[in-house]
Write a structure and sequence with these properties.
seven-stranded mixed sheet; 29% helix
Amino acid sequence: MAGLAVWVYATGPSDEEMIDAALEEAVQASREGRPFGVLEHMAGNFQFNGQAAGDRSDIIRYVRTLKPDVKIQDRRLTLDGDSATWTTPVKIVFGDSESGVGGTFEIPDVKIHFRRSFGTRMTFFPYSSWKMERVDAPNFLPPMLPF
């Protein structure tokens, strides 16, 4: 069994590939208004600019309503053990014709922080994945939804 675990880790995707895939899946889900596709890549204690991002229902409503289209323009990854940070300029387009909330924003220096998490599948098979734990976007306040 230990040999299987070593083989799984040795032949699986690299950390960089797993982080890139997690980010791409979350961005695609956000663009399509699929909140659960975003939430699966977020840590339970996710923060935006040092603040709690709200509870799951807030995030679900936000993604479904505004469908943030995040364009990551130039990825620079720093990997340090079980944590990693993408530093990149980002362009975000928010749009909701019904509420009138929306706009396009360009943020020059966004840091997307990831943390590795570990688990098992079907009780025996170990795996690791990367979750977004924090996004720092200096001087950016996202649009708020009307209640």
